[in-house]
Amino acid sequence: MKIIPFKIPKTEKDSFLLQEDHVSHFYDKLHQHSEVQLTLMLKSEGTLIAGDFIGSFYVDDLYLIGSNLPHVFKNEDRFYQNGKTEAHMISVFFDKESFGKDFLLLPETAGIRSFIYGLTNCYKITGETAERIKQKMLQLFKLEGFDRMLHLLSIINLMATSTEIVKLSNFKASKSYDASEGKRMNDILTFSIKQFHRKITIEEIAQVANMTPEAFCRYFKVCTRKTYLNFLNEIRITNACKLLINKDLTIAEISANSGFNNLSNFNRIFKKVTGLTPSLYLLKSQLQKARKE
Predict the structure, then answer these.
(1) pLDDT grade for 176, boundaries at 50, 70 and 90
(2) pLDDT tens figures, 80-100
(3) CATH topology identical between 4-167 and 182-292
(4) Is the keyword Transcription in the record (predicted)?
(5) Assuming Cys at both sites, which of 182, 212, 216, 220 could form a disulfide with 2, CB separation 3.0 to 4.6 Å?
(6) Alpha-carbon span 207 to 200, nearest angstrom
C-alpha cells in the first residue's frame, strides 16, 4: 500500500467534480490529490485520518480537506462484513483553477481567493453554516452548467465568511509522497489501527516501517510533528470516545478495550486529547444529541 496520488477526473464540460459514493465501505487507502475536497456524510461512521488529525466521523458531518493533504475515511469493521451499501457520502472537488485563471484576481473575489489559497489543512464545518451548506450541496447535484457553478461559488463564499469552521489538523502538505515513503506511512497507519488495543513497542512498529527504532522515531516526528506514542494514544482515545457514546460499558472497561492497562493513565491522556474527562465528554455528547432531537 502507498499514499496514492489521485488525479480527479473531470470532463471537458466541467471545471469541478461532483461525486457520490454509495458503497459497502469507502475507499480505505491513504491518498492525496491537488483538489480541495468538500464532503458530506449521508450515511456512515468510522475514523477520519487527515494529515496529523485522527478522529471519528458520523452521519451529517461536513468536512473540508485541503490540497494534497493525505487522508482516508476508514469505515468501522462492520461495514466490511455485511456487504450492504451502507456507506454514503457526497463530495465536491475544486481548485483555484476551477473558475478560470483570472477570476480569482478580481477585486470582488478577494475574500474567496484568500480562502481557497489558504486551504491546506482539514476542517470541520459546524453550526448554522453546516446546515446551510448541506442543503446547498444536495441542491448542487440537481443543477447543471452555469447554475451549478454559481451555486458552488455561493457555498465557497459562505465558508469563506463563516466563523463556524474548525481547523482539525496542523499538517501542511507541501509535497506529494513518493511510492516508498507513502507505503511506509500507510503500513504504519494500518498496523496501528488494527493493533492499538494491545501494547505496541517502538521496536515492533519500527520493524513494520523497516527501520531501526532510533531512525523510526526521528522519521515519524518529522513526518507527523508528533511522537508515535502521541499518535497511538490519539487512535486509542478516538476509539474510547466511540465506546463512551455507543456502548454500555464502564470507564474501566473502555480503558482496557482501548489499549490502556492503567485507568489513571487513561483518564489523564483522555483529558489531554479531548480537553474533557471521560464523564464530562459523555455528558456533553448526550446534551448535544438531545438538542438535535
Answers:
(1) low
(2) 887 777 899 999 999 888 887
(3) no
(4) yes
(5) 182
(6) 11
Fold for domain 4-167?
Jelly Rolls (2.60.120)
Task: Please compute, for residue 132, the number of CA atoms within 13 A of its CA located in the half-sphere on the CB side.
Answer: 14
User: What is the pTM (predicted TM-score) of this model?
Assistant: 0.78
Q: How far is CA 204 from CA 67, 161, 212, in A?
A: 33, 47, 10
Q: Confidence class of residue 10 from pLDDT cuts 50, 70 and 90?
A: low
Question: Which CATH code, of 2.40.110.10, 1.10.10.60, 1.10.3470.10, 2.60.40.10, is assigned to 182-292?
Answer: 1.10.10.60
Model confidence at 228, pLDDT cuts 50, 70, 90, reads very high
Reduced 3-state DSSP string for 11-58: CCCCCCEEEEEEECCCCCCCEECCCEEEEEEEECCEEEEECCEEEEEC
Residues 6+ apart with CB under 8 A from 84: 24
pLDDT of residue 1: 35
